[in-house]
Specification:
Strands 1-2-3-4-5-7-6 form a seven-stranded mixed beta sheet, with helices on both faces. It is 24% helix and 22% strand. Strand 6 and strand 7 form a beta hairpin. It has a single domain, classed as Aminopeptidase (3-Layer(aba) Sandwich), CATH 3.40.630. It has 229 residues and is an alpha+beta fold. It binds coenzyme A.
Length: 229
C-alpha cells in the first residue's frame, strides 16, 4: 500500500481508487408472468420513484375517477395499482421484461400491444399526430434500480423486449423517448437508445419527447400473438 507523499501527512495511507471487488454478475432477462410476478414485486417494492405506479398508469385508458381517489394516501394509491397490475398479469394482459443481476431483479421494460397500453391514445399530443394504427406495439416504460443505473440495464431490457415482440409476430413498434438529458419523462427511454435499434422519429410528443416507430419482422415460425390458430 503506498504512503501519502505529503510530508505533513507522512505515513498517511493512500487508498487505491475504488474498484469492484469482483466482476459484475452477468445480466439476464425474463418475461413478466405469473411465475415472475414475485420478482416484479421485489423490484417495484424497492424504494424508488416508481414505487407508487407499479407500471399500471399506461394500462388504464383513463385515470381512476377522482371521486374514488380523493383523499387517498400514496400507500393507498400504490396498493390499488399493485392490485390492478397483478390482476392483469394473471389474465395475461401485462407484458414486460425483467432484467436480473444474478437473482436480483434490477430493471424493467414495459411493452405490449396497443390495446394493453391505451393511455397513450388519450394524450392530446399523440392524437394531434393522427398516426395510423394497424398492428401496433408500444414501449412505455423503462425503470432501473438506482444502484444499477449506467450499467446498460435499460439497453438490455429494450433489446429483450424487441426480441419478444419479434417472437410474438412482430409489427410496428412505437416508443416515446426523451430527446435530451434532463427531460422529465425519462422512463420512456432516450431517443439514442431507440435510434440504435433503427427506430425513426415520426413526430413530436410534447416538448421533450418524440414518437418513434420501427417495423419488427415476425420471427420465422413464431405465432402471431392473439391470432386464432
Ligand atoms: C432512464 C433509465 C431507465 C436508464 O437506465 P440505465 O440502465 O441507467 O440506462 P443504460 O445504462 O442502459 O443507458 C441507456 C441510455 O440512457 C441514457 N441515460 C441514462 N440515464 C439517463 C438520464 N437520467 N437522462 C437521460 N439519459 C439517460 C444513457 O446515456 C444511455 O444512452 P446511450 O444508449 O445513448 O448511451 C434509469 O435512469 C431510470 O430508471 N430512471 C428513472 C425512470 C423512472 O422515473 N421510472 C419510473 C416511472 S414510474
Amino acid at each position: 500500500m503506498p504512503f501519502h507523499p505529503d510530508p505533513g501527512r507522512r505515513n498517511a495511507v493512500i487508498l487505491p481508487p475504488p474498484q469492484r471487488r469482483c466482476a459484475p454478475a452477468p445480466l439476464s432477462t425474463k418475461e413478466l408472468s405469473k411465475e415472475t410476478w414475485p420478482d416484479f414485486q421485489r423490484l417495484f417494492g424497492k424504494r424508488g420513484e416508481w414505487g407508487v405506479c407499479w407500471c399500471a398508469y399506461y394500462q388504464r385508458a383513463r385515470p381512476i375517477p377522482p371521486d374514488e381517489t380523493r383523499g387517498w394516501s400514496l400507500e393507498r394509491r400504490a396498493k390499488r395499482n399493485r392490485e390492478d397490475k397483478v390482476a392483469l398479469v394473471e389474465q395475461g394482459r401485462a407484458h414486460g421484461i425483467l432484467v436480473y443481476v444474478g437473482d436480483d431483479p434490477v430493471g424493467w421494460c414495459q411493452y405490449g400491444p396497443r390495446e394493453e397500453l391505451p393511455r397513450i391514445d388519450a394524450a392530446r399530443n399523440y392524437k394531434a399526430l393522427g398516426l395510423g394504427g394497424g398492428r401496433l406495439w408500444r414501449i412505455t416504460c423503462l425503470s432501473v434500480d438506482r444502484a444499477h443505473r449506467g450499467e446498460g440495464v435499460a439497453r438490455m431490457a429494450l433489446a429483450a423486449a424487441l426480441k419478444s415482440i419479434e417472437s410474438q409476430g412482430g409489427g410496428t413498434v412505437e416508443a416515446y423517448p426523451v430527446t435530451h438529458r434532463g427531460a422529465l419523462a425519462v422512463w420512456f427511454g432516450t431517443q439514442s437508445m431507440f435510434a440504435r435499434h433503427g427506430f425513426k422519429v415520426v413526430g413530436p410528443y410534447g416538448r421533450s419527447n418524440v414518437v418513434m416507430r420501427k417495423t419488427v419482422r415476425r420471427r420465422p415460425g413464431s405465432k402471431v400473438a392473439g391470432a386464432k390458430p
